[in-house]
Amino acid sequence: MTTKKILDFLDRHRTEGPCLVVDLEVVRKNYRTYKRALPRTRIHYAVKANPAPEVLALLVRLGASFDVASIREVEMALRAGASAGSISYGNTIKKEGDISRAHQLGIRQFAADCPEEVEKIARAAPGAQVFCRLLTDGAGAEWPLSRKFGCDPAVACDVMRHARRLGLDPCGLSFHVGSQQTDPFAWQRALEEVVRVFHVLAGDGIVIKCLNLGGGFPSRYLRDVPLAADYGREILRALRSRFGNAFPDTVIEPGRGLVGDAGAIRSEVVLISRKSGSDPLQWVYLDIGKFNGLAETMDEAIRYPITSRYGRGKAVPCILAGPTCDSVDVLYENTPCRLPHDLKIGDEVLIGGTGAYTATYASVGFNGFPPLEVHVV
């Protein structure tokens, strides 16, 4: 639900185009909720979800660590006050020059999923810690991750052995169960693979000191999702069933789960039309679409709650689309959204749950539309 702070801000401030407003109090509450759910686990905020300086600075004050995907994100976290020791370079695809620059800035933790990446780390960041990312199927996730990241257990063992041969510290394993993961048991399935690798490496004298359990923790959109406490309970149960009470240090990397429900986008209706006289559904075009921040509507994977503060008539199904001159810029057509039948051109709509992966997905200048404006309250 859009908070009163966000609504009050929107009432006081007018913008020419769409804007995202993020409520820091929601971020604070979500962080503390996950700390309670997994008290022995360090939280590495996934900066890519929302790198607003105010969000990063708040999380620094709360004691968070950070997962970064680029040298730019390293620099953003450092500018916000994070210590280099609290930052993990979690992208498995890095330029060697970026690894070197991160190492110069004090970063010591790097992810890899193949021997070739380990070799880059060894050359550019000698002595660094290496986490090997395992491949998962992402079952249960509304925004599944592909085979682009991770490797199977046999390759993971080779990666860690290679890291040790090259003088690196093969200290951790990581995985990601898919974004907007709605199944709290998904971590149990992933940990089955982790344990096999853990024991094989132990036989080689490689001790895994840390397990990075990844992100995937969901935000509420149109449907209810399990609570943080549900995820914490099942993750702890899975860890104890496989490691007893002496399991390695653990890390989680929530992004969406911390900031998703903290933001809302104000958008304007640009056009309402029908394609023919017999068309049963009207088309509603907004001044924001896939290329302006709503990329996660691809294949209608993420369904945002959309409401109007103007039309008061009966809600009817409509096809929702963005403003750009690109035919894929259609948000919801297979499953239309419902908006008041008396909605008018120029009316505003609120798109809830948009605190994560909107401003960062907004392209710079596609069709001449500016990046999404962001305000933090």
From TrEMBL:
<dbReference type="GO" id="GO:0005737">
    <property type="term" value="C:cytoplasm"/>
</dbReference>
<keyword id="KW-0663">Pyridoxal phosphate</keyword>
<dbReference type="GO" id="GO:0033387">
    <property type="term" value="P:putrescine biosynthetic process from arginine, via ornithine"/>
</dbReference>
<dbReference type="InterPro" id="IPR002433">
    <property type="entry name" value="Orn_de-COase"/>
</dbReference>
<comment type="similarity">
    <text>Belongs to the Orn/Lys/Arg decarboxylase class-II family.</text>
</comment>
<feature type="modified residue" description="N6-(pyridoxal phosphate)lysine">
    <location>
        <position position="48"/>
    </location>
</feature>
<dbReference type="InterPro" id="IPR009006">
    <property type="entry name" value="Ala_racemase/Decarboxylase_C"/>
</dbReference>
<keyword id="KW-0456">Lyase</keyword>
<feature type="domain" description="Orn/DAP/Arg decarboxylase 2 N-terminal">
    <location>
        <begin position="26"/>
        <end position="259"/>
    </location>
</feature>
<dbReference type="Pfam" id="PF02784">
    <property type="entry name" value="Orn_Arg_deC_N"/>
</dbReference>
<comment type="pathway">
    <text>Amine and polyamine biosynthesis; putrescine biosynthesis via L-ornithine pathway; putrescine from L-ornithine: step 1/1.</text>
</comment>
<dbReference type="InterPro" id="IPR029066">
    <property type="entry name" value="PLP-binding_barrel"/>
</dbReference>
<dbReference type="GO" id="GO:0004586">
    <property type="term" value="F:ornithine decarboxylase activity"/>
</dbReference>
<dbReference type="InterPro" id="IPR022644">
    <property type="entry name" value="De-COase2_N"/>
</dbReference>
<dbReference type="InterPro" id="IPR022653">
    <property type="entry name" value="De-COase2_pyr-phos_BS"/>
</dbReference>
<dbReference type="InterPro" id="IPR000183">
    <property type="entry name" value="Orn/DAP/Arg_de-COase"/>
</dbReference>
<protein>
    <recommendedName>
        <fullName>ornithine decarboxylase</fullName>
        <ecNumber>4.1.1.17</ecNumber>
    </recommendedName>
</protein>
<feature type="active site" description="Proton donor">
    <location>
        <position position="325"/>
    </location>
</feature>
